[in-house]
Automatic annotation (TrEMBL):
InterPro entries: Pectin_lyase_fold/virulence, POMP_repeat. Residues 1-18 form the signal peptide. This is Right-handed parallel beta-helix repeat-containing protein. Its main location: other. It is found in: Cell envelope; Cell outer membrane; Secreted. Keywords: Cell outer membrane, Membrane, Secreted, Signal. The lineage of its organism: Bacteria, Pseudomonadati, Pseudomonadota, Alphaproteobacteria, Holosporales. The keyword Signal applies. The keyword Signal applies. Pfam families: Chlam_PMP. PROSITE patterns: PROKAR_LIPOPROTEIN. It comes from Candidatus Finniella inopinata. One of its GO terms (cellular component) is cell outer membrane.
Length: 910
């Protein structure tokens, strides 16, 4: 079996030749020097000359270069390349190599030894071969083993209209790899198995787009594989069809487990070519650009931070599914008949679906998902979509257990619901976890969403929207459980009760009569306020300005809210600057069900002005809270959601969305003069400050698995700004992406705070994974040009820029500190530092380890990219231990650089 390497895109200069002879032959060592009787009429003739054209049959060259000066239209027979030829370059110059009109079926090239092929800027079209696997496979390709395709950014390669029994373009019994940095198009190819590619394993990891379009086959319209498929480079599937299974991809091995990994950074969508039926069945749905697997042991893995939307009917995916990152969406709002997995309840049954596990990513959509078991892990999101024409048809159908971690988020922000309608979210056999523990994000904060379970196994889970009614003509009635007396307002109940631990329950969905502040200083045992069954929204009475709930003096306050939304309050009083809560001392909030603060505002220029203002804030428990659209203006201390003169500690799931501060205020969501400590996964999205700290401003910050998206600050610190130290603990992986495109040469003067991390001075320290057991990777794709302090990577990794964000930056030419990688205090650990971006430092010390390694990870960027690779830019010492692991693609060059630094006395190696 012959082994081949395809390197697409090697650019060579075109050569002139006589009319009709279009194939110039040369050697790779001297591509501009013609050999033999160049030019030749066909590449077949040129290759025969290369192999036998020398004296006594000696080859003219073992590494021929073919340069086309026109279309090669005279190919009539296949060419069997002898084993003496070890590489072949075809520089197409934009020309086409078609099968000659009227010629019989044949493959262009048959390989008989080890060969590397470098096609560039060329189109192969209309070749055909109907031989069986093992002889000549594919209209253009042959029986290849462990082949790869790569190339440069300037020369594109097209395979069009080729046909074969197996693999219309590229039939092989081995593994195929595309590492292309040029555009590759495989279009209108056909075969019985694998219209474009038939292989025993496939990797698509290039940096430029590979397009599969209008390919067709019996199985695997675009790709047919008997082993693992890894898709991590830009890949598009359009209008590929199969008569049976897998219009886009078919995992064909019926004997052992294989996986299909789809890594998405930017949004990718697979659409069907034809309209899909409303309720698909195995009998009437063929392979329309879908994904399919032959056995239940197969695994589909969604990786990467981007969104993969499958608008296709993937009824023949019989395997399991894992969502490790980003989003897997089955059907957008225009494709409610999209499907993932077979429906066992269809008539006839479509088969038995596999399991689905969501590990911190997002699963959902408007289509139907079928599984034998579904698990939403910590920090995972269930994105709700509904078919408005069939609101009682479940989107998620589980024959076994539905498991919900208490930190699961149900995202209903993408759907518009009709009040009073029960929307069926899921059917399932058993429920593991509690429905009341999950965090529901809703489209309209002035409405209430509730979950309900019916049946006795299988169960039905429904989501119901309750709209906030108009302002009632009669006062709101509220029951004070501590004295059994009904009251007409929250203020009335709290000011008349004799209990020191009052417990209040609303009986209506809205309270619109609160016209004065209520002081809670006397309630030493805490206050419990519970909304009605469908939730209660508390809105200020017309004309009321001031804090709803206050304390004075040194008394601390314990508040236990449940099923409540606080909306539309505002304060201009510097004594009570919190629009909803003003607590002079410590405030502890322990929600017993969903609590939301939305659309509140404070405009106090000299105080801690936010929805909550307190001397210290603690949010604890397992129930979710949300702060949405709160504002703080006229300067002040900032923190539109939480503003505190002391510490802020959060140990429950909290989301902060689109909170903002204006004027000279800092901290779009949180402003604190003490330490901000968040020990449970929290989410900050779309928060902003016109000064510093788009999400958080504090003198010290400690976070665990906190997510940041689209937070901005006009000056610096779109995600976090600290005047002291910052510790970021990561369990698995956290990525911070910029909202806008980053500049290629960012400086502290030109880059504002786009979801970045910043500090006030060089004395600050940024520490990755200080907590024991935290070994995850923090990836910063942002330009952190205003981090002035030092950095320590105790364990796990700090990656500055992934492959799609080479302009990411840590520090700057004028703002930089020392970096230590690894720890020798406590448990000895090894850390990882590197990436595709630029890291500025005064010095970098990879701490010597015992029994473990520190890692320097160097990303190599595409040609022409700035920087060309991940860069450590230091003004001082680089210190490496002898056992450091250096992961890069240019290792020999790297060793020369290290040796040079060592000889100059800049580098120390232990």
């Amino acid at each position: 079996m012959r082994s081949s390497l395809f390197l697409l895109g090697v650019s060579l200069s075109a050569m002139s030749c006589a009319y009709g002879n279009v194939a110039m032959l040369s050697d790779s060592g001297a591509p501009s020097n013609p050999l033999g009787s160049s030019p030749y009429a066909t590449i077949n003739a040129a290759l025969n000359a290369a192999a036998t054209g020398g004296t006594a049959g000696v080859p003219l060259t073992t590494t021929p270069v073919l340069t086309l000066t026109g279309d090669d239209t005279a190919e009539t027979t296949e060419n069997t390349l002898p084993s003496t030829i070890t590489s072949l370059t075809i520089n197409g110059g934009g020309h086409t190599i078609p099968r000659q009109t009227g010629a019989g079926n044949f493959t262009l090239l048959r390989l008989s030894g080890t060969l590397d092929i470098y096609p560039s800027n060329v189109t192969f079209s209309n070749f055909s071969n109907n031989s069986t696997l093992g002889a000549i496979v594919g209209g253009v390709g042959v029986n290849l083993n462990h082949s790869s395709i790569s190339g440069d950014t300037t020369s594109n390669v097209i395979f069009s209209g080729n046909n074969s029994l197996v693999g219309g373009v590229y039939g092989t019994q081995g593994v195929v790899s595309f590492t292309n940095t040029n555009l590759v198009t495989l279009t209108s190819n056909s075969a019985d198995a694998g219209g474009a590619i038939s292989c025993n394993g496939l990797t698509l990891s290039g940096t430029r787009l590979v397009t599969f379009s209008n390919n067709s086959a019996g199985d695997g319209g675009a790709i047919w594989s008997r082993s693992d498929v890894d898709i991590s480079g830009p890949t598009a599937f359009t209008n590929n069809t199969a008569r049976r299974w897998g219009g886009a991809v078919f995992m064909a091995n019926p004997d052992f487990a294989t996986y299909l990994s789809y890594n998405v950074t930017n949004p990718v969508t697979l659409n069907p070519q034809y309209s899909t039926p409303a309720l698909a069945t195995a009998a009437n749905v063929g392979g329309d650009n879908d994904i399919a697997a032959a056995i239940s042991a197969a695994m589909f893995i969604k990786a990467g931070t981007g969104t993969l939307t499958l608008n296709t009917v993937n009824v023949n995916w019989l395997g399991n599914t894992t969502v490790n990152a980003g989003s897997l969406i089955i059907g957008d709002s225009s494709h409610t008949s999209a499907q993932w997995g077979p429906n066992p309840s269809a008539s006839p049954s479509q088969g038995t679906p596999g399991t689905i596990t969501v590990n911190g990513g997002t699963l959902g959509g408007y289509g139907q998902i079928h599984a034998s078991a579904v698990t939403f892990g910590a920090g995972s999101t269930w994105q709700v979509g509904f078919d408005s024409a069939h609101p009682t048809v479940a989107r998620l159908n589980v024959t076994g257990a539905l498991s919900l971690d208490p930190r699961t988020i149900i995202d209903a922000t993408q759907v518009t619901l009709t009040p009073g309608t029960n929307y069926t979210m899921a059917t399932y056999g058993t429920l593991i976890g509690s429905l009341s523990a999950v965090n529901i994000l809703q489209h309209n904060p002035s409405s209430s969403l509730s979950l309900s379970q019916t049946g006795s196994g299988p169960y039905t889970l429904s989501l119901t929207l309750t709209a906030v009614p108009p302002i009632p003509a009669v006062p709101t009635i509220l029951t004070a459980g501590s004295d059994g007396t009904n009251h007409t307002s929250l203020h009335g109940a709290l000011t008349t009760t004799a209990s020191t631990t009052p417990s209040l329950t609303f009986t209506t969905a809205a309270d619109t009569v609160e016209a004065t502040s209520t002081n809670l200083s006397s309630f030493t045992g805490g206050v419990s306020i519970t909304g009605a069954a469908g939730g209660t929204t508390i809105i200020p009475a017309t004309g009321f300005t001031g804090s709803l709930l206050t304390t004075s003096g040194s008394n601390a306050l314990l508040l236990k809210p449940s099923n409540l939304t606080f909306s539309g309050f505002s304060s201009t009083d510097s004594n009570f600057p919190g629009s909803v809560i003003s607590c002079a001392n410590a405030l502890t909030i322990n929600p017993t069900n969903q609590v939301t603060f939305t659309g509140n505002s404070s405009s106090v220029s000299t105080a801690y002005a936010g929805a909550i203002s307190a001397g210290q804030v603690t949010i604890t428990g397992t129930k979710p809270m949300a702060f949405t659209g709160n504002t703080s203006s006229n300067g002040g201390k900032g923190g539109a959601a939480i503003s505190s003169s002391g510490a802020v500690q959060i140990s429950s799931p909290v989301t902060f969305t689109e909170n903002s501060v204006m004027g000279s205020a800092n901290g779009g969501a949180i402003y604190s003069l003490g330490q901000v400590e968040i020990s449970e996964p929290a989410t900050f999205k779309g928060n902003s400050s016109v000064n510093r700290g788009g999400a958080i401003y504090a003198p010290a910050v400690g976070l665990t698995d906190t997510q940041f998206a689209n937070n901005t600050a006009t000056t610096s610190g779109g995600a976090v700004y600290t005047t002291g130290n910052f510790t970021y603990n990561v369990t698995k992986a956290v990525t911070l992406n910029p909202q806008y495109s980053t500049s290629t040469a960012a400086t502290a003067a030109s880059v504002g705070g786009d979801n970045d991390i910043a500090c006030q001075g060089g004395g600050s320290m940024f520490t990755v994974n200080a907590a024991v057991g935290k070994t995850g990777t923090l990836t910063l794709n942002t330009v952190n040009a205003n981090w002035l302090g030092g950095t320590t990577v105790n364990a796990g990794g700090l990656i500055i820029g992934d492959s799609s964000n080479p302009s990411a930056q840590w520090g700057s030419a004028v703002n930089r500190g020392a970096i230590n990688v690894g720890s020798t205090t406590g448990a000895v650990t090894g850390g990882t530092l590197g990436g595709y971006g630029t890291i500025y430092a005064t010095s970098v010390n990879f701490v010597p380890q015992t029994g473990t390694q520190s890692t320097w990870l160097i990303g190599i960027n595409p040609t022409g990219t700035t920087p060309p690779c991940g860069v450590l830019n230091m003004t001082g010492q680089l210190t490496l231990p002898s056992n450091i692991e250096m992961m890069d693609l240019w290792h020999q060059l790297f060793q020369l650089v290290v040796l040079t630094l060592w000889r100059q006395g800049i580098l120390t190696i232990y």
